[in-house]
TrEMBL record:
GO molecular function: cadherin binding; calcium ion binding
Species whose genome carries this gene: Myodes glareolus (Bank vole)
Keyword Metal-binding: yes
EF-hand domain location: 36-71
Protein name from the UniProt record: Epidermal growth factor receptor pathway substrate 15
């Protein structure tokens, strides 16, 4: 806040909203997957979840993932990152994160991280993962 006050005192324009770099970590965007992306990935998920159990297995997503043209090793790494509970299946949110990471690589050339940052963890997984970390 003081930074913006000093900017105003220096006659610099004060932005209507905070630039991302000035947003405190606790208040930053809650998830890297935008609502528009999530809606698009949810549609793909519903078509991919053949047994309608709310999860997709590696077998169910294999063809969809391979169609992206990314190397199998990279897709396996993305799967491992997104399978936050190490259960061998992805929930709808985890699937959305996987597709977000795939598209980041395909569209922007951004490699997936080695570990998920806090804003990458699907909101539905955050409370259970925090409990595990505290134990």
């Amino acid at each position: 806040a003081m930074f913006l006050v000093y900017c105003a005192l220096e006659k610099e324009p004060v932005p209507m909203s905070l630039p991302p770099a000035l947003v405190p970590p606790s208040k930053r965007k809650t998830w890297v997957v935008s609502p528009a992306e999530k809606a698009k990935y949810d549609e793909i998920f519903l078509k991919t979840d053949k047994d309608m159990d709310g999860y997709v297995s590696g077998q169910e997503v294999r063809e969809t993932f391979l169609k992206t043209g990314l190397p199998s090793a990279l897709l396996a790494h993305i799967w491992a990152l997104c399978d936050t509970k190490n259960c061998g299946k992805l929930s709808k949110d985890q699937f959305a994160l996987a597709f977000h990471l795939i598209n980041q690589k395909l569209i922007k050339g951004i490699d997936p991280p080695h570990i998920l940052s806090p804003e990458m963890i699907p909101p539905s997984d955050r409370s259970s993962l925090q409990k595990v970390r505290k134990v």
